[in-house]
Amino acid sequence: MKIAVVQQPPIYMNKEESLARAVALIADAAAQGCGLIVFPETWLPGYPTFVWRLKPGAEMKKTDALFALSQANSIDLSKDDLAPVKEAAKEHSVVVVMGHQEVDGTLSGSTLFNSVAIIDADGKLLNNHRKLMPTNPERMVWGFGDGSTLKVVESAVGRVGALLCWENYMPLARFTLYAQNIDIYCAPTWDCGEAWLATMQHIAREGGCWVIGCSTSLEAGDVPTNLPYYGELFPDAAEWINDGDAVVYKPFGGLHAGPMRREKGLLISEIDVGAAAASRRKFDVSGHYARPDVFTLRVNRAKQSPIKFD
Asked: What whole-number distance in Å separates Cα of residue 159 and Cα of residue 10?
């Protein structure tokens, strides 16, 4: 099976145009024979990199305008905002893993979440996982997810699961996916570089699964100049904001494709999905290596809500 890892930036902070670009990228990957297409963290409508660039104190007030723009371009599943992506998945019979910034229109309608959707080849939403713990200044933008979406799902291309960015440093979150017979482990992220690539390799070895790491390859020129405080946030017009580093590691840790660094486009490679389960003969972290007489993990799968209606 061929897979495509997206390393093309969205139309930054523009939901409608980014959705149109996503549909075009899905069509492109499908035309090249890909059955699985993986997008980076918060690809819709773009990662809020500004939270790492504002100085603590008075500059934090500038977050208000940036947050409002980001919020207005976020995905609301209650309004079926991912419909174009779901329709493209169905039209081309491909599985899509889409990182997106979500606003929950059924509750507050304000708090944002860093989410990843897994859409099957028939266009059905199989899972929508919200990042459990935003990292450092990300907490100014995103709320917390819960354990209800820590799922590996059966799809047209095998059993697929996803954790976002530094969730992948959480051993118990990883183990929760390993224990669900995972074939393909997707790690949409904003991170890149050698340390991150080493983490992807470690997960492939630890979990005995295919690991796909992908971040948005982004230059300052990809950000519209009418973004509030653009000149202060991106003073170097030639800056590479993120190198990308799309990568695929095979089960038990060997490099399979990539990393694709400071390039834009699709990283396409062919994988043998069945190699995941077979590789765990030597080391099955949730099977014969688990030692449940010594270690156990309890996961709260209940969906959390601040209100209950009788």
From this structure: 27
b/e for 190-216, b at 16 or more Cβ within 10 A?
Answer: bbbeeebbebbbebbbbbbbbbbbbbb
Rounded Cα distance between 296 and 67, Å, is 40
Contact 297, 286 (CB under 8 A): no
Tokens standing for residue 175: 């183990």
Give yes or no for a cis peptide into 306 (omega within 30° of 0). Answer: no
Distance CA 298, CA 138 (A): 27
Q: First and final CA of the chain: distance in angstroms?
A: 48
Q: Which of 34, 165, 186, 192 is catalytic?
A: 165
308 is catalytic: no
Instruction: Indicate if 165 belongs to the active site.
Output: yes
**Which of 207, 201, 120, 200 minimizes the C-alpha distance to 158?**
120
The catalytic residue among 41, 102, 138, 206 is: 41
- 34, 86, 102, 131: the active-site residue: 131
pTM above 0.85, yes or no: yes
Sorted by where each starts, the structural domains of the chain and their CATH numbers stand as 2-279 (3.60.110.10)
pLDDT along the chain (310 residues), means of 10: 97 98 98 98 96 78 90 97 98 98 93 97 98 93 96 98 98 98 98 97 98 97 95 93 98 96 97 97 96 96 91
CA–CA separation, 145 and 128 (whole Å): 10
Tokens of 260: 């694709």
Calculate Rg over the CA atoms of the chain: 19
The question of whether 16 is a catalytic residue gets the answer no
CB atoms within 10 A of CB 219: 17
